[in-house]
Amino acid sequence: MSAPVLSIIILAVMFLLATLLPLNMGALAFVGAFLLGAVFLGMETSDILANFPGGLFLTIVGVTYLFAIAQNNGTIDLLVQGAVRLVGNRVGLIPWVMFAITALITSVGALSPAAVAIIAPIALNFAGKYKISPLLMGMMVIHGAQAGGFSPIAVYGVTVNGIMDQTTLESNPTALFLASLGFNLMIAAILYVVLGGRKIVTARVATSSSRPPRCACRRASASVPPVTSPSRASAPASTDRAIRPEPPPSPPLPHRPRPAPSASRRSSPSSA
Fold first, then answer.
1. What is the tens place of the pLDDT at every residue in 80-128?
2. I need a surface site. Which of 53, 55, 261, 269 has the fewest CB within 10 A?
3. Residue 266 is assigned to a structural domain of this protein
4. Which three-class secondary structure string do you get for 61-77?
5. From CA 205, how far away is CA 242, in angstroms rounded?
6. Looking at the domain assignment, is residue 270 inside a domain?
7. Over residues 199-219, mean pLDDT
8. Is residue 207 part of a domain?
9. What is the distance between the terminal CA atoms of the chain, rounded to a whole angstrom?
10. In the chain, how many domains are there?
11. Could you tell me the residue range of the domain that residue 188 belongs to?
């Protein structure tokens, strides 16, 4: 079996194991490289390590580390809030804001899956808030990540340009980046039209001010007298008596005459 076929088989097994098991794909790649070189091709350890792209590895690690710092210190959240604040109440521009932010994040070094994982929840939140199609928002985020993925300092751009430098082919990092940006921008524009973007182009967010005009406030305060609530604790005793009057006195009982003495009582004992 030839070396290219063995390389493809080892690469497929590596992706399968990394998908099914919680294993790091980079560590599996090192194992696969040493397995292919030492076992099947009979290479020495020094020859295998000589093919390791140290400069490319250092570039990818440095750019990814820079993006991790920007994510942890709140720069991404500040960028999203500032961009959404710039569009104001124009709902139709929010999908393009998500496209631009995701493209910017990937162009400065973030991996496309990482950028989508960060921006997609924010974009779907705005989609539910402003009645935008979630499918439209998701596609704008994905194509924004692909649009900036081939920047000269992005991971994919650094990888492709590093491989092209080792060949005799002519390469232009700027042309590669602009080609990817233009292609994904065109796809995003088509999806914007197809997935309902025309319905939200003229949509505006209704802003209502809870504070009335100053003249209305003055008129209202002049026409309505101030209302004060009396406090029973601070009111004098006379106020409490005026509020709660005493009950009227009960009427006197009618006079009943005493009964007259009977005839037996009026007779004296001597007459008896």
1. 778 778 777 788 888 999 999 999 888 887 788 888 888 888 888 888 8
2. 269
3. no
4. HHHHHHHHHHHHCCHHH
5. 57
6. no
7. 56
8. no
9. 163
10. 2
11. 67-199
- Do 153 and 125 lie in one domain? The reply is yes
- Residue that wins the pLDDT comparison between 8 and 228: 8
Q: Please report the pLDDT score of residue 103 as a whole number.
A: 92
Cβ-contact 66, 59 below 8 angstroms:
no
What are 27-81's pLDDT values in tens digits?
A: 888 888 888 888 877 888 888 888 787 777 787 777 778 777 877 887 777 877 7
**CA separation for the pair 114, 67 (Å, rounded):** 10
**What is the pTM assigned to this prediction?**
0.58
Residue type, 17: L
Look over the chain and give the mean of its residue pLDDT values, rounded to a whole number. Answer: 76
In this structure, which amino acid lies at residue 146? Q
Residues 179 and 118 in one domain: yes
Same domain, 11 and 132: no
74, 171 Cβ separation under 8 angstroms: no
Residue where a domain terminates, one of 144, 172, 199: 199
In a domain, 73, yes or no: yes
- Integer Cα distance of 124 and 27 in angstroms: 34
For the chain, how many residues are written? 272
The DSSP line for 128-166 is HHTT--HHHHHHHHHHHHHHSTT-TTSHHHHHHHHHHHT
Residues 19 and 75 in one domain: no
Question: If DSSP codes are grouped into helix, strand and coil, which group holds residue 197?
Answer: helix
Query: Do both 39 and 77 map to the same domain?
Result: no
Check residue 104 and report its DSSP letter: H
Cα–Cα distances in angstroms (integers) from residue 126 to residues 139, 170, 203, in the given order: 14, 43, 14
Distance CA 48, CA 100 (A): 41
* Separation CA 234–CA 145 (nearest Å): 69
